[in-house]
Write a structure and sequence with these properties.
This protein is 25% helix and 37% strand. The strands form three sheets. A six-stranded antiparallel β-sheet has the order 3-2-1-4-5-6. Strands 7-12-13-14-17 form a five-stranded mixed barrel. It has a five-stranded mixed β-sheet with strand order 10-9-8-11-16, with helices on one face. The chain is α+β, with helices and mostly antiparallel strands and 443 residues long.
Length: 443
């Protein structure tokens, strides 16, 4: 009941702000408001390093004087500050150049059915309990093997907040959400050489977090597996991306088909709508209304209703990702993607990681990527990588200090399989991805 009252109070604040914008002469306005609280605990080598209690709030307002736009923000939610923030936005708008594409979204696209997506699961966690969990997590990692020589620590975080958004054409909605996480990172040493790795778990509901000791054990296990890493000679070979890194391949796709990249003509997938860019078994779709999922949302950053989308069907690109502004620039309609996608799912195949290693035979399993070597205009791809060399479907030894390279258009077309070992810890749900061939630069 209390959380509903808080949402109602914040909705009243947005309502008053929008009225103030109208009073100051704005022809249209929108505003968003967030209030968050949380606890973060970090431990290292069995000692508490930090305990942080978080409490933050923020307000952003955008006003329009016809096609002139101004925005301002504040962390002070008092009546005087809100009025001053609106005034600042109006002053900017009055002196801004006219933009024929600026404005609020079309009213008929706003979300109206704002059902509960089960995003709010508060964790009444005391600092002492969080410390015990973090210590247990780290200790399980340090006890895993004698070669675990040091620790970067373990952390426990819990956040809960309310977000409210409204505009002057009738939209006003708010919701509460939570996000809890636990992580651990340790170092291992063998023959004077050190490696580090980590593991983490994140969920809306603390009951869906992995066990603290299990997280620490996985972090240590991954670290030990990396000891004795070597480089490779330069070659071309099949590459298998593990689930922890395969999402980055889809991240590059999302950037290339987003409205901003398209109207700026800074995308390697210009004019690719209804074109085959993946093998015909590839199916990528969006499910924004999954109950309790990390990426779920009823509306986008403009209040436009989110909906299930077929992004890639039978390997063919079926939609761009557009907010209202980019849609107008392109002569299209908003797809409800102001602010990005929500729960993007890549259809899994019928093989797990071990079976995909057998399918690959000999090649590189990538478990970590470094650097930002992706050209969004050309699709050229070159990133530092670490992982494991595989022969006859069996991991032989860990690999580091190499670069993998290709072009995303070719990489997408040459995907051989997607695994069923899906990583659910983010907004992109995907398993391992096997690519037929990439270039490796090493020794």
């Amino acid at each position: 009941m209390q959380i509903k009252q808080e949402i109602t109070q914040l909705e009243a604040t947005i309502h008053d702000l929008l009225q103030e914008a109208q009073t100051q002469g704005a022809s249209a306005a929108s505003a968003g408001l967030s209030v968050d609280t949380g606890l973060s605990v970090n431990v290292r080598l069995g000692e508490v390093e930090t305990i942080e209690h978080h409490c933050s709030q923020g307000l952003g307002v955008t006003v329009y004087f016809g096609q002139q736009k101004g925005s301002a923000s504040s962390t002070d939610l008092s009546a005087n500050s809100i009025k001053e923030t609106v005034t600042a936005a109006c002053n900017i708008a009055r002196y801004a150049s006219e933009d024929p594409y600026a404005g609020l979204p079309d009213k008929d696209r706003l979300a109206t059915d704002c059902k509960d997506l089960d995003l709010y699961h508060p964790w009444e966690l005391e600092a002492e309990q969080a410390i015990d969990l973090a210590l247990s997590c780290e200790q399980s990692a340090r006890d895993y093997d004698a070669e675990i020589s040091n620790s970067e620590g373990a952390s426990v975080d819990t956040f809960q907040g309310i977000h409210v958004f409204g505009n002057s054409i009738g939209f006003l909605q708010g919701y509460a959400s939570t996000r809890h996480s636990m992580s651990c990172s340790v170092l291992g040493e063998r023959d004077g050489n050190m490696e580090r790795d980590y593991w983490y778990s994140v969920a809306r509901d603390r009951n869906n977090l992995e066990d603290a000791a299990e997280i620490g054990t996985k972090a240590a296990e991954r670290t030990i597996q990396r000891l004795g890493a070597r480089s490779l000679s330069t070659r071309k070979t099949p590459v298998l991306y593990s689930p922890e890194v395969s999402g980055s391949l889809i991240g590059s796709l999302l950037g290339a088909i987003s409205g901003g990249s398209l109207y700026r003509k800074s995308s390697f997938l210009l004019d690719s709508l209804e074109q085959q860019i993946f093998p015909d078994f590839m199916h990528i779709y969006e499910q924004p209304h999954l109950l309790g999922a990390l990426g779920s949302a009823i509306y986008d950053a403009e209040g436009v209703a989110t909906q299930a989308h077929e992004i890639i069907q039978d390997g063919v690109l079926k939609t761009y990702l557009l907010g209202s502004y980019s849609a107008r620039k392109l002569g299209l309609e908003s797809t409800g993607h102001a602010g990005g996608v929500h729960n993007l799912c890549v259809q899994a195949g019928d093989q797990n990681l071990a079976q995909l290693l057998q399918t690959m035979g000999t090649g590189l399993l990538v478990t970590e990527l470094m650097g930002q070597g992706v050209n969004p205009v050309t699709g050229d791809y070159s990133r530092g990588a670490a992982g494991f060399w595989v022969e006859n479907g069996i991991i032989q030894y860990p690999v580091q200090e190499i670069t993998i390279a290709g072009n995303l258009k070719d990489m997408y077309k040459n995907i051989v399989a997607v695994g069923n070992d899906i990583d659910y810890r983010g907004n992109v749900r995907i398993g391992s991805v096997l690519i037929e061939e990439m270039a490796i630069a090493g020794e």
